TrEMBL record:
The keyword Lyase applies. It comes from Candidatus Gallibacteroides avistercoris. Keywords: Amino-acid biosynthesis, Lyase, Pyridoxal phosphate, Threonine biosynthesis. Gene3D superfamilies: 3.40.50.1100, Threonine synthase, N-terminal domain. This is Threonine synthase. It comes from the Bacteria. The modification N6-(pyridoxal phosphate)lysine is found at residue 107. One of its GO terms (molecular function) is pyridoxal phosphate binding.
Amino acid sequence: MLYYSTNKKAKEASLKEAVVKGLASDKGLFMPSVIRQLPKAFFHNISEMSFQEISFIIAGAFFGEDVEADALKTLVYDALNFDAPVVPVTDRIYSLELFHGPTAAFKDVGARFMARLLGYFIGKERREQVNVLVATSGDTGSAVANGFLGVQGIHVYVLYPKGKVSTIQEKQFTTLGRNITALEINGTFDDCQALVKSAFMDADLNAAMNLTSANSINVARFLPQSFYYFYAYAQMLRQGKGDNLVFCVPSGNFGNLTAGLFAKRMGLPVKRFIAANNRNDVFLQYLQTGQYEPRPSVATIANAMDVGAPSNFARILDLYGDSHEAICAEISGASYSDQQIRQTISSVYQTSDYLLDPHGACGYQALEDGLQADETGVFLETAHPAKFKDTVESVIGKKVIIPDTLKAFMNGKKQSVELPANFEVFKTYLLDQ
Ligand SMILES: *Cc1c(COP(=O)(O)O)cnc(C)c1O
């Protein structure tokens, strides 16, 4: 399948080119040229199917032309060797728990899939080393670093804002060594993202090394995120709750939400979506005014959503032909302050005995506030609450149980390279490697 750029000025790319390059040459984001409708028969059987079985079928719809079926099956089954259960929180609001992977956040899905797909292309052609640059506000770095750890032919540079990620998050990408390098940037997440973007646009760097991104701008990372919307639907159907479903997505760069919009285009019966934001709410502002005005991010306790210029906004616009009206017909928004997030974590813990993380709390609250009488809501619980231990413990006044997978990271020793938020310095550093 070919991939076009949202800016429409670059030549269409093959899947391999889109994955290896990350961003199109005209700075646009790659979009699949075809969004396949899934056959009716698939939806008849879906409630009987496992996460891996469903994912393999959706993966085939996107990647089946470019990857042999048995290789794709191995890749999917290997990447998604954990569950994504839907759990009731109230009688109308369900949590799609996406934190059962190795780094306890949803980004494991896309990162593990992308690492294997890129590894597949590199291995097939014996290409020279590919360097993955990834900017993180916390969870992307851990998922990508762990997803790519030890993959032959790939080196990963994780850029993260010094002092702005939680200790557990930081440990997850600074303790690995091997083909993973952590770059501690004196700046904000937006600075990290800008450095990565500038690197992709820099002629010298691109002449000297193969660079790609593992942020959700990469199609191999964000498209697999559509898998679990289908799986969530399957589970809701099994419980007789498949009608009038509303998915609510705690959003930062909007990769997760965009993957859901793709699922709907492929025929998934979703009524509508809600994008839940923290105080970084440029998308909500866009919905309300029709004006998209990116601005610097502000730090919140849901830090993986601290994004002031969501990179997938271009994909949403493209998907709806730039129509504000069409976008508003399928997506609404909400925004919550740290104080409100804390309040939600506390009240849901007390009344439903369910422990939310600060991101999932935005999702839950937006359903609580926005669900209509005939609707059932599923919010994406994007991370395990233990990843935000300090915040969550201060709210509920109790210790949070840390999953063993996360505990193991805490014993590792942090190794990072500190750099200023300055492109020339960053460039020189990369060229010296
Ligand atoms: C990355 C992340 C988000 C935001 O996802 P986007 O796809 O960037 O919108 C939300 N919650 C958590 C825990 C995350 O790690």
